[in-house]
Write a structure and sequence with these properties.
Layout lengths: L9 H12 L3 H14 L4 E7 L5 E6 L6 H6 L27 H6 L3 E7 L6 E7 L2 E8 L4 E7 L6 H5 L4 H18 L4 E6 L2 E6 L4 H9 L7 E7 L4 E7 L11 E5 L2 E3 L2 H10 L12 E6 L5 E2 L10 E2 L2 H18 L43 H4 L54 E2 L2 E2 L1 E3 L3 E6 L2 E6 H19 L4 E11 L2 H9 L1 H7 L2 E5 L3 E8 L7 H14 L8 H13 L9 H11 L15 E5 H6 L3
Helix pairs in contact: 2-6, 6-7, 8-9, 11-13, 11-15, 11-16, 14-15
Length: about 625
């Protein structure tokens, strides 16, 4: 039998490695930005075309590379960061494996321009599918520019798995945030399709957070700082009032490297216990400094997971530090309640000594005694001594004559009875020929001829709102309620840009917008079915769903928009409904075109047959 094991060619091995390192355009952005930071750059510019599918260009003013280093950088496992295995536990740089450029060059057209400070002429290299097609001297500025074009050009199957441009742009922005937050001293710019998205000058951490997430973020931040023998932690957490349903603003950095740690995230949630609802998530920007030898960052290809030597100690320190900061800045509840000024001592009595009150007690008083002392007690109302005329009050009560004009007491007597103040089971109004009940403030139960019908109130209201909003956005006849005072909401710059793109569709659902700022938004009117306090939550969820294309990617933008709004505006589980509200909800549901299925294709109604119930009692 012939031998069947063989060595893979280099270009195939590079493509396999690229599958681990490069998952989408955001992966390329991350690797190139980290390489630019390792080159001691003070200014980095990111340029994108079509969400990185057509072009990703990163330009820095770092140290640059010599012609030999520039060519060698595209080889696998070529790196200047480590030389021996022990160096893996003393890392202070971003990249160290030497696979980034080799993996990127295997699946894209890459152009590299670089020049060192002491050199007069730089180098230009073009690589296509791991093959160097050109290398020549070039007049270029100090630093390095890497342009990645036509990503996945030779792997069309991988390219077909990419999401739409808004989704891929959101992933790139997330990676950009993580790098820019970790290095506030470096200037960053990001341009997408000739539109400047971010322009971040050198600053401190707080100012960098404000520049990225908007000016209103400054008032939400609570400083966190603590130094111990094994850990130094500083950064900020958001006040409990600004906790959100999503995990968008949650950033952990260890030695200026972004990481994902569910264990440490649990420590933050534990610090906020009792301050926010269980369904909400706190926001934080926490920077941890530990000994590089106490962590292992080589356990995942993307280097976003880290293994700590002593996670339990870090957990306790993170939790205690955040709780201390929340209490120190009067965010957590304390026992010193607000003092009522009306209970303060008047100024005239502030210097006077208190006088003990005196009480005179008649120790000889006996209410059952008939002594003379008791007989002389005076009452405010004296009883008349002559009581003979009292009998006249009862004259005629026994007269039972019923002649015309006479008084008959028997015909006007009323008798007291026990008043019914409540019942064990609330009376229900008939709906569809039966009674409706609410089970666990979640389901509406209505008896039918064959058994009973169970309706999920949240999904039912979703279906009602979905069809109503879809009709409004199609025929442009939405009803809007005008606000007495316009709402001023704050979003990040990409979120504002996303809302501007769907402004027309939102206005067809009932929103009335005022001025759009760089990171602010004015709302003058909202849909009739929406409460004023829900406007911010609905728009935040809408932005998230559009960026992530939730729940499906095959629907039109209008359909996705109204599904997201219907989900946010629908009656939540746990809300108690009276009989009229239940009746109205059921009637509105059966007026829909598809009452049995929610907009997300979940069952709204199930029917339980009486025969199935009978079997339970056998």
């Amino acid at each position: 039998m012939p031998d069947i094991i063989q060595l893979l060619p280099d270009h195939v091995a590079n493509q396999i490695a690229a599958g681990e390192v490069v998952q989408r355009p955001a992966s390329v952005v991350k690797e190139l930005l980290e390489n630019a930071i390792d080159a001691s750059s003070t200014s980095i510019a990111l340029l994108l075309k079509d969400a990185g599918k057509t072009l990703i260009s990163v330009t820095d003013n770092g140290t640059g590379m010599s012609p030999a280093d520039a060519l060698l950088s595209f080889e696998r496992h070529a790196t200047s960061k480590i030389k021996i295995a022990e160096d893996l536990f003393k890392l202070n740089t971003k990249g160290f494996r030497g696979e980034a450029l080799a993996s990127i060059a295997a699946i894209a057209h890459v152009s590299l321009k670089t020049k060192q400070q002491d050199q007069q002429i730089g180098t230009k290299i073009n690589v296509q599918g791991s093959k160097v097609v050109a290398q020549e001297p070039a007049v270029v500025p100090k630093g390095t520019t890497i342009a990645v074009k036509n990503l996945f050009f030779n792997i069309p199957a991988r390219r077909n798995f990419l999401k739409s441009n808004p989704v891929e742009t959101r992933h790139i922005i997330d990676e950009f945030h993580r790098v820019a937050l970790a290095h506030p001293s470096i200037s960053f710019t990001m341009t997408h399709n000739d539109d400047l998205v971010f322009n971040l000058p050198p600053s401190n951490v707080r100012q960098r957070i404000v520049n990225i997430f908007g000016s209103k973020t400054n008032e939400k931040l609570v400083p966190v700082e603590e130094t111990t023998a094994i850990l130094k932690i500083d950064g900020f957490v958001l006040k409990p009032d600004f906790a959100k349903k999503s995990r968008g603003q949650q950033f952990f950095f260890v030695n200026d490297r972004f990481i994902k740690s569910p264990y440490l995230n649990h420590a933050v949630n534990a610090a906020f216990e009792g301050l926010i609802k269980p369904s909400l998530h706190p926001g934080y920007f926490l920077f941890l400094e530990v000994d590089p030898q106490s962590i292992d960052i080589n356990i995942h290809p993307t280097k976003t997971e880290i293994k700590f030597d002593d996670e339990h100690a870090l957990y306790a320190m993170v939790r205690a530090t955040i709780k201390h900061s929340l209490g120190q800045f009067s965010i957590a509840p304390v026992l010193d309640f607000n003092r009522e000024s009306s209970l303060d001592t008047p100024y005239d009595y502030s210097n006077k000594k208190p006088i003990s009150p005196t009480i005179d007690v008649d120790r000889d008083f006996n209410p059952f005694s008939t002594s003379a002392k008791q007989k002389n007690i005076n009452f405010p109302y004296k009883r008349d001594k002559d009581t003979a005329h009292w009998d006249s009050l009862y004259v005629g009560l026994n007269d039972t004559k019923t002649t015309e004009g006479s008084y008959s007491p028997e015909t006007h007597l009323t008798f007291e009875s026990d008043q019914v103040t409540g019942s064990l089971f609330e009376e229900q109004s008939p709906v569809g020929g039966g009674l409706t009940f609410q089970l666990q403030n979640k389901y509406i139960i209505s008896p039918i001829k064959s058994g009973m019908m169970v309706i999920h109130q949240h999904l039912a209201h979703q279906r009602i709102l979905y069809e109503e909003l879809l009709k409004n956005i199609t025929v442009h006849q939405a009803v809007s309620q005008q606000l007495l005072f316009p709402l001023e909401l704050t979003f990040s710059i990409p979120d504002i840009q996303a809302l501007q793109k769907i402004q027309e569709q939102l206005e067809h659902t009932g929103f009335v917008f005022g001025a759009f700022g760089e990171d602010t938004l004015s709302i003058k009117g909202i849909p009739a079915a929406l409460l004023e306090g829900q406007a911010s939550m609905v728009l935040e969820q809408l932005i998230k769903d559009i960026m992530d294309e939730v729940p499906d990617a095959g629907f039109s933008q209008n359909d996705l928009l109204v599904r997201s709004m219907a989900k946010s505006m629908a009656i939540k589980t746990g809300v108690s409904l009276n009989s009229e509200e239940r009746e109205h909800l059921v009637n509105q549901l059966f007026m829909c075109k598809e009452p049995s299925i929610s907009p997300s294709n979940q069952a709204v109604i199930i029917t339980l047959d009486a025969n199935d119930l009978d079997k339970k009692f056998i």
